[in-house]
Amino acid sequence: MTENFGCLTCVQVLNIMVLLGFMLNYALRVNLTIAIVEMIFDDKSNHTVSAVANLTDTFNVTEHPEHIEQTRYHWSTKQKNLLLGCFFWGYVLTEVPGGRLAEVIGARRVFGYSTLLASVLTLLSPGAAAAGFGWIVALRVVLGFLLGATWPAILPMASKWIPPMDRSKFMSNMMASSLGAAITMPICGFLIAHFGWESAFYFTGIIGVMWSVAWFAVVYDSPAQHPRISDSERNYLLKVLPQDSGKQHTSVPWRQLLLSAPVWAIVITHGASVFGYFTVVNQLPTYIESILHYNIKHVVIIYLRVYRTLEFANPIDDFLEQLLKSIT
């Protein structure tokens, strides 16, 4: 077949699906950070009325307390922090193997099935919490294990679809996917305020299943495998991106990598960046609710202000990268 997706090329469809997929990736991991505010009994219920009033005036928000009958748990602060952090126990285990697995069985399968299974687990999260604290912790560890494989898995696919001159823009779009957290917060905040904390997991889980179905319908590992790509686009990509000729893959130069100063500079810089980012993502809602004593609606408003600042840097970074390339 030579038909295409309307005016969109298959590369553009891939870009859109990858962006939405990584936005979903963030949504599936941060839904707990906002839901946990309402999942746990607040022993310090002496909310500061003046503080809430000041925030209401600042953001022009009218207070309409919602009284939702929902299950709450008597989890300690230690248990709450354990639950927020256990996601990363599984996450770090698949950061390296995920890319290699994608090379062997295909990025389409790794990325698609990891997201699909993570979405199903998200739908099961309220039930796991009801079953016991250990169950929800185990579920979050497995969730991290699945989502950790998605980031490295997409790189082998990019090497077969994205021309070299467009790869920096492709990576920039991947980084902009943290918008998923910024979008998830207000939606989940609204749902939690009106329908209870369980709705945050049901909403993100259903969206994840829907995305997974679309992913397997429109995305393929290479132009040669795509049944609906136009002849002109396939020929162009095969020309600018030589496909695998069947030769054996060279082994990874682990020794050179481990002794490379630039590699360690990237690892340390990225590690510090991720540490700061996820400290904000995981702890800010709890801090706003427990220390500043604002309700769920105000938590969302402050969170959005933080994300507006964070996302403003992404297009600037991309512009500076392109500028440096042009002068070197």
Automatic annotation (TrEMBL):
Lineage top rank: taxon: Eukaryota
Q: What is its main location?
A: membrane
The alphabetized UniProt keywords are: Membrane, Transmembrane, Transmembrane helix
Tell me the membrane topology, using the record's own terms: Multi-pass membrane protein
One matching Pfam family, short form? Answer: MFS_1
**Any one of the GO CC terms:** membrane
Location comes to:
Membrane
Q: What GO biological process terms are annotated to this protein in UniProt?
A: monoatomic anion transport
Where does the Major facilitator superfamily (MFS) profile domain lie?
Answer: 13-328
Q: Where are the transmembrane segments?
A: 6-28, 110-129, 135-155, 176-195, 201-220, 257-278
Entry GO MF terms: transmembrane transporter activity
**What is the protein's name according to its record?**
Major facilitator superfamily (MFS) profile domain-containing protein
Per the UniProt record, the source organism is: Euphydryas editha
